[in-house]
Amino acid sequence: MTAYKSKMVERIHLPSREVRDENLEAAGYNVFNLPSKDVYIDLLTDSGTGTMSAEQWAAMMLGDEAYAGSSSFENLKDAVSDVMGMEYVVPTHQGRGAENVLYGTLLEEGDVVPNNTHFDTTRAHIANAGAEAVDCPVSGAMEMQSDEPFKGNFDIEKGWDVVEEHGEDAIPVVVLTITNNSTAGQPVSMANIRAVSEFAAEIDATFVMDACRFAENAYFIQQREEDYEHHSIADIAREELSYADALVMSGKKDALVNIGGFVACRDADLFEHTRQRAILYEGFSTYGGLAGRDIEAMAQGLREAVTQEYVESRVGQVQELAGLLDDANLPVYLPAGGHAVYLDAEGFFPHIPLEEFPGQALVCELYREGGVRGVELGSFAFPGTNRPELVRLALPRRTYNREHLEHIAETVAGVYERRDSVSGLEIVSEPPMKELRHFSAELRPV
Ligand code: F0G
Ligand 1 pocket check: which of 92, 208, 212 to mutate, most ligand atoms within 8 Å of Cβ? Predict the structure, then answer.
């Protein structure tokens, strides 16, 4: 059931098929190069692309733009304390700013950092600090269809293998990403959160949570984990985060804003160190690269994110889209995650070898077919890794409605129907850093 109606609208436009063909060619078959005005339904990301509430827009008018000591910062501090239970807050311009500030403070050359699965910016910031990022997903995390309710969990045994290989002293930080974006947006159970916190305590490591989608994760715990069905989302969210020593947050997800992020922690000493680094990279520690009005919107958004109405219609919409695709027998990862539906590109194009990027071919065909923009998260985005060939359709928060979902499902089905006639792609030019390839490389049909 939806909990929203529109108060402001933005026109969208489906260009003709000819124009879509031309746009694809001009974009070098890379949808990051498409003008957004020519994208009919934009599922590139759920990050910063959602719709703010009337209360958030109203709060923006109260933004205190003082360089130091702004009252907007005090409001954010109160919201983080109430919603997330953390005392100290360092605002940053977005999630990766928080990663830079925290990991740059905690890590040294040669350190090793286990995580259920590192998101790409997390991995990059850990590498930038001279440390090594190691993934510890549970086995079966990448099974395309299974009934397992918490495929985002951290495999504690794999964590102990990392300890055995590198020694406790090399592991100052253990991270847990909720939900697990790089594992199809799958949730992490409360039992697993507890187990990871015990693991981190045993090896004397700081337990950091990447909390960007903490409210969506709380919803899955309420729906799927024993003993939580009668707990409120707000209570579950606070309990989830109560096990962490610190957290990094991209406000562009579950703080329901277009820009913003922060580090939060419990320890005064860690706060002071983090704050100093934030002043260097983000701005003075009461604004952190944000306008006071952005901070007000983030404080309000955090409170809205943990309401039952919000999160139920949010995750419900993602499940609804997955249901439409599954009903049409399309190859989709199940159960769906909290923020996106993931398509199995190899299930569409078994005739296209991985070297010819079946996932990227699918992304291009979705645009050609119905003006829908998704993102490839497989052989093109992660060269040299052995990841499944997934295409992510991420739903912006509080933005699209049932008719949009139906158009998306029809578009995917349309591509599936003509799947045998789709060919692969080859790279024409790419940037020097392989990790950033999918943002700007250009391709052409084979
Ligand atoms: N951690 C996770 C788990 C994320 O999903 C993201 C962003 C970040 C950190 C970085 O936050 O973008 O505010 O700097 N994910 C977006 C996505 C970009 O499309 O999944 P940011």
Answer: 212
pLDDT band at 385; cut points 50, 70, 90: confident
Instruction: Check pocket membership of 210 for ligand 1, CB cut-off 6 A.
Output: yes
At a CB cut-off of 8 Å and minimum separation 6, what does 286 contact? 66, 67, 68, 69, 70, 73, 91
Check whether the bond before 179 is cis (ω within 30° of 0): yes
Mutate which of 45, 119, 120 for ligand 1? The one with the most ligand atoms within 8 Å of its CB, which is 119
What would the 3-class secondary structure string for 181-230 be? HHHCCECCCHHHHHHHHHHHHHCCCEEEEECCCHHHHHHHHHHHCCCCCC
The residue among 252, 271, 305 that closes a domain is: 305
Residues 321 and 292 in one domain: no
**Does one domain contain both 237 and 189?**
yes
The number of distinct structural domains making up the chain is 2
* The pLDDT value given to residue 165: 98
Ligand 1 pocket mutation, candidates 92, 102, 216, 250, criterion most atoms within 8 A of CB: 250
What is the pLDDT, as a whole number, of residue 387? 85
Same domain, 301 and 364: no
Co-location of 152 and 254 in the same domain: yes
| pLDDT digit string, tens, across residues 181-206 | 999 999 999 999 999 999 999 999 99
Q: Is the beta carbon of 119 within 6 A of some atom in ligand 1?
A: yes
* pLDDT on residue 433: 80
Q: What is the pLDDT of residues 38-61, one digit of tens each?
A: 999 999 999 999 999 999 999 999
- Same-domain check for residues 144 and 98: yes
Tell me, what's the pLDDT at 217? 98
**Closest ligand 1 atom to the C-alpha of 180?**
3
Contact 337 CB / ligand 1 (< 6 Å): no
